[in-house]
Write a structure and sequence with these properties.
- The chain has helices spanning 16-19, 34-44, 54-69, 74-83, 91-105, and strands at residues 10-11, 14-15.
- The chain is mainly alpha-helical and 107 residues long.
- Residues 3-30 have low confidence and may be disordered.
- The chain is 52% helix and 4% strand.
Length: 107
């Protein structure tokens, strides 16, 4: 999604592999969702963030929200998100991604 192709072990409720899909560019979804478009635009606005696979970024945003709703600690999710990148995301990027996911996908 953002900066990785590294595969890791399950972390929290998601896997590092689910968050790491930068090297794989996928075709955009046939039906665009305005909320997804806004989510991707906000991700791209994060300094240094490079979204090469929109589909994976969107999936990761939903997984981040699911983990927040499930009660996993915000800092644990930020730390796991940061370590999912290749190279790793810096803490500000990871925190920004969690903020953006929460804003667009959490109830």
């Amino acid at each position: 999604w953002v900066a990785s192709s590294r595969v890791g072990t399950p972390v929290v409720g998601f896997t590092a592999a689910a968050l790491a899909a930068v090297g794989v560019a996928l075709a955009p979804a046939a039906m665009a969702d305005p909320n997804d478009d806004a989510y991707l635009a906000d991700l791209k606005a994060i300094s240094g963030m490079n979204v090469q696979s929109p589909a994976h970024a969107i999936d990761s945003g939903h997984k981040i929200c699911n983990d927040l709703v499930a009660g996993f600690g915000r800092q644990l999710i930020i730390d796991s998100t940061a370590k999912s990148g290749d190279p790793d995301l810096d803490p500000a990027q990871a925190s920004g991604m969690v903020d953006v996911a929460q804003r667009h996908y959490c109830p």
